[in-house]
Amino acid sequence: MNVNAEWQSDFSVKISWTAAIFDGDDQKLSSSKENVFIPANAPQGWIVDLATGGPWPDRAHIEFTIANNQQP
Questions:
Q1: Count of domains in the chain?
Q2: pLDDT 10s digits, 23-50
Q3: CA 22 → CA 19, 29, 32, 57, distances in Å?
């Protein structure tokens, strides 16, 4: 998973993330990508489920939250 955060002049934060799952040969089998702006003093959460198509437990389950907390 790769996450990039960019502060914006309106005090929002642009979050860009990509998650991927690979097989044993480093071939990407499943991926998800999102770009979102989080306003000041707000959180944003995601749940990402990726699978290889193979038998259990060949999968990835990711839960994360990013909060744009402004400091006085």
A1: 1
A2: 777 766 677 788 999 999 999 999 988 8
A3: 10, 5, 12, 13
